[in-house]
Amino acid sequence: MNPVLTQFGAQMSQLTGVRAIMKDIIETLRAGDGQEFINLSAGNPVILPEVEQLWRDCTAELLASNEYGEVVCRYGSSQGYQPLIEAIAQDFNQRYGLKLSDRNILITPGSQALYFYAANAFGGYTTSGNLKQIVLPLSPDYTGYGGVTLIPEALVAYKPALDIDASAHRFKYRPDFSQLEINETTGFVLFSRPCNPTGNVLTDEEVQKIAALATPHNVPVLIDSAYASPFPALNFTDMTPAFGDNIVHCMSLSKAGLPGERVGIAIGDEQVIRVLESFQTNLCIHSSRYGQAIAARAIASGALAEISTQVIRPYYQEKFTVVETSLDQAMPQEIPWLLHRGEGAIFAWLWLQDLPLTDWEFYQRLKQVGVIVVPGSSFFPGLREDWPHKQQCIRISLTASNEEIAIGMQRLAKVVAEVYQLAAASE
Ligand SMILES: Cc1ncc(COP(=O)(O)O)c(C=O)c1O
Asked: What is the C-alpha separation between 319 and 214, in angstroms, rounded?
């Protein structure tokens, strides 16, 4: 059967960004013909024993409690499971000196859902026909933002400024405030901090500057804190989570070991939360209450924040060090390779300046030596202009073992040397 699709149907039945590449990766792994691959493409977090145990313990407590029937046998409020909302309000008020009430908090089935609500409530056409843009102030950013809007023309990303330390082979993206426009055509602003794919952490000053640009136009600023403190605390550099009238602090428990349960959290202005909540009621009523109930226990006891800084953060920080040292040892000095500063998240981001191939061709070459990464061009949603840089980067996941990462980087260095040499020889 081949039913006629609407515009939205056509739009939403396509895979965007990295999800399209994942198909190629899964097929490659399946058709391996005995070839062993070092898979540095995964976005799925590693199952860390201490983290799994925490969720197991919270589940055992829930099963043994009177609460169990109430949690799984009944519908609940769209806003979320009350004990979880209370645990978050209490934790954040104490930790950051805030005055949150339960009306400032919404629980969603994963944070991707939250961005979908926001993208279509604040981005797109207003009732008077004006286009409200979804502004990504610093591209590259999370590939999933490419699929959240029903109105693709609403998504607009800005090229970053580049902070380069060529001799150290390191660089960092910064928002380019000389270009960034936030005005009456802006519906809302969205960025991840720490950033997937780059590991970048916008500084506190950069965040305040963006929020200040948005304030006079009544524009919400959604800060995707899927990797931030207090959980999963995957920031390797100091950062203060930002709060403020127009800031919506968006979190996910996925990287804190609970991706299967789909728990996203929005903390922000009451009216903004109300709009997102109604969107959710219409779409799916509410998030699964089992995940919310075990999260309430892990947050209220302080165990989740503790395990985040004691176990999750050091685990990935060490992996980043392995990428760094392996590349420093194996990569040719004379080639302009630049690793993004590792400030957080679970990825390393490598820029091969003047790469003689596209990122996609380079990804294919790496596959031939048994290494799978993600080509970088999928991480520029909303950036329509031609920019060679978009085809010169790759994302390396920090979810493999130290040994696999080290071998993967050595093989990558060899391929890099070959492709640049070949290009030089043919000039
Ligand atoms: C930056 C960022 N935001 C949002 C998400 C979506 O997470 P979830 O829907 O599992 O909360 C991810 C997942 O990888 C991510 O990396």
From this structure: 36
195 Cα nearest atom in ligand 1: 1
Which atom in ligand 1 lies closest to the alpha carbon of residue 43?
A: 14
Q: Tens digits of per-residue pLDDT, 37-54?
A: 999 998 889 999 999 999
**Best substitution site from 22, 111, 139, 225 to test ligand 1's pocket, by max atoms within 8 Å of Cβ?**
111
In CATH terms, the fold of domain 50-306 is: Aspartate Aminotransferase; domain 2 (3.40.640)
Q: Which residues, judged by CB distance below 6 Å to any ligand atom, belong to the binding site of ligand 1?
A: 43, 110-112, 142, 144, 192, 196, 224, 226, 252, 254, 259, 264
Beta strand segments in 33-117, E: 38-39, 105-108
Task: Give 9: exposed, middle or buried? Use CB within 10 Å, 0-12, 13-18, 19+.
Answer: exposed
CATH 3.90.1150.10: which residues of the chain? 14-47+312-425
The CATH class that applies to domain 14-47+312-425 reads alpha beta
The token pair that represents 425 in the structure block: 């020889």
pLDDT at 386 over 80: yes
How far, in Å, is the centroid of ligand 1 from the Cα of 111? 6
pTM: 0.97
Q: Where in the chain is the domain with CATH 3.40.640.10?
A: 50-306
The alpha carbon of residue 408 and the mean position of all alpha carbons in its chain are separated, in whole angstroms, by 23
User: For residue 248, what pLDDT is reported?
Assistant: 98
Each residue of 72-101: b (16+ CB within 10 Å) or e? eeeebebbbbebbbebbbebbeeebeeebe
- Counting other chains too, the contacts that 9-14 makes at CB distance below 8 Å and 24 or more residues apart are 11/150, 11/152, 12/147, 12/150
How far apart (Å, rounded) are the C-alpha atoms in residues 344 and 325? 17
Measured CA to CA, the distance from residue 198 to residue 395 in angstroms comes to 8
Distance 228 CA to ligand 1 centre (A): 12
